[in-house]
Amino acid sequence: MSGVGNFLVLTVPPKKFPETFAEAKKSLEAQGVTVAVTAADPSGRVDLAAALKVLAGLGIHSLFVEGGSGLLTSFLKSGLYDRFSAFIAPIILGTGVDAAGDLGIPLVNQALSFEGVRWVRIGDQQLFDAYRYGWLEELKSKIQLQEDEYVYRTC
Question: Helix 69-78 crosses helix 48-57 at what angle (to 10 degrees)?
Fold first, then answer.
């Protein structure tokens, strides 16, 4: 792995064989890999909210998630995303792997919605690029809270 770039492994502590995990972690770190340990969710997978906090603590504030339908579904269900991009190509695969799993949304008026939508043609494909609806207002609120806290502490 040397010379290829920076590597980060984000994982949950195993329930079995903690000594093997400790050895693997030490071996990876000896090769320059950062191994960050985060909390598990009730199913034993990475707790996304906890993972994002760990990453923020490491100075990582932007994340490109390109995973399978399980990972994508988890991010969509939790609302732990700001921006969503997807390519639409002029091909039909038929039965295959779902891009996203069941989001538990029974009605169209409860569907995930987006704002700031851009469509970009790239060759014969279309890129859908948009922000989670309400994201900008949430960001403005956080900035205002930080400004208010700063003013409170300095006065």
Answer: 90
Q: How far is CA 8 from the centre of its chain?
A: 14
118's tokens: 């851009």
The pair of structure tokens assigned to 11 is 């994982």
Note whether 130 and 82 are within 8 A (CB): no
- Where are the alpha helices (H) located in 58-96, listed in sequence order? 69-78
User: Closest Cα partner for 29 from 47, 44, 14, 9?
Assistant: 9
What pLDDT, in 10s, does the model give residues 32-53? 999 999 999 998 889 999 999 9
Q: Say how far residue 144 (Cα) sits from the centre of its chain.
A: 25
Q: How confident is the model at residue 4 (pLDDT cuts 50, 70, 90)?
A: very low
Alpha helices, H only, 6-134 = 18-30, 48-57, 69-78
What is the bridge-based pairing of β-strands 8-11 and 83-88? unpaired
Flag whether the pTM goes above 0.70.
Answer: yes
Locate 127 and state its tokens: 């890129």
Asked whether the predicted pLDDT for residue 135 surpasses 60, the reply is yes
